[in-house]
Amino acid sequence: MSAYTHSLGTNLQPIYLDCHATTPVDARVFEVMQPFFMEQFGNPASVNHSYGWKAAEAVEIARKQIGKLIKTDSRNIIFTSGATEANNLAIKGLLESAGVGSHLIISAVEHRSILDPAKRLKRAGYDVTILPVDEFGQIDLQQLENTIRKETALVSIIWANNEIGTTNNVKEILSICKERQVPFHSDAVQALGKISIDLQKVPLQLMSLSAHKLYGPQGVGALVVQKVVQENDIAFAIKPQLEGGGHQRGYRSGTLPVALIAGFGKACELAKELMIDEATRIKKMRDNLWQGLQNQLDGLVLNGHPEDRLPGNLNISIEGVDGEALMTSLKRIAVSSGSACGSANAEPSYVLKAIGRNHQQTRASLRFGIG
Known about the structure:
- The longest helix has 39 residues, at 258-296.
- This protein is an alpha/beta fold.
- The model is unreliable at 1-10 (pLDDT under 50).
- It starts with 6 loop residues before the first strand and ends with a strand.
- 35% of the residues lie in helices and 15% in strands.
- Belongs to the class-V pyridoxal-phosphate-dependent aminotransferase family. NifS/IscS subfamily.
- Its EC number is 2.8.1.7.
- Residues 15-366 form the Aminotransferase class V domain.
């Protein structure tokens, strides 16, 4: 999908360049979702009639579509209300199962739905280590290895950062965790459908996903739980955070939103078909935008890794510019100055601060999410 514009009457809306915050629902996704709002409205847990059977079938189709994109058994996919819930289930569920005093390792540039649960766990008596990152937003692998100890119950490192687009070396992180027999979780929300995720080659134990970053609906996500991938795999347990029926293998109770799940599955099916070509096209657009900005403006600073980054991400700081005035002046394009999930807090981007940007640079920053 190219840069997105929308018109209401005679008012032309801004060009949409904020695809890390959310994406519009693809028409083919919406078409799949529609019947489950009215005609096929059954509850998939209703096992005694055809309405429930059809709903359950739709859920299983979606599970298989998601599983094929990330190359995992569909039974490993636990649907949630979004990635925030999936991250909370992974972090709090595993640590609470391991018990007070167990150790969690995360990075300084995780999404707030990792950082905030980690802070709550620390207040409750758990031990939390927040690893610093380098100037590009990547962790030091040797430091990770040195930080793991016998009490370490989980390592959680983001696959692709939601602000600066930097990707971590997930394969090497998994190798370290496996060597030390520690479960590994990754927030892969921004990576899904944008870059290759192959859980046969990188068989991490836990991974969080969301539909609305790849042209699926808002309000649905998933936690991938791979408990048995290879021989001598790492044992772990997850304490449910929502109880009331024991749905989804006991991990997450509640009536499943069939329409949203069907849309999630279709979005993943489309991503599997189109991802390689789309990544090439979008990266070219991103590089052209960056080159054009450099040709026209002085004082630009690229935030994030120049190579190890999402194809549609461009995050820049502008030297000598007032951040508030910068955002106010942008009427024709829709962009963000940081994470949409942190916009309730007026503080400068903690991600940019973590990679060494000064106060002015964090204030005068723009995140372009090209789709």
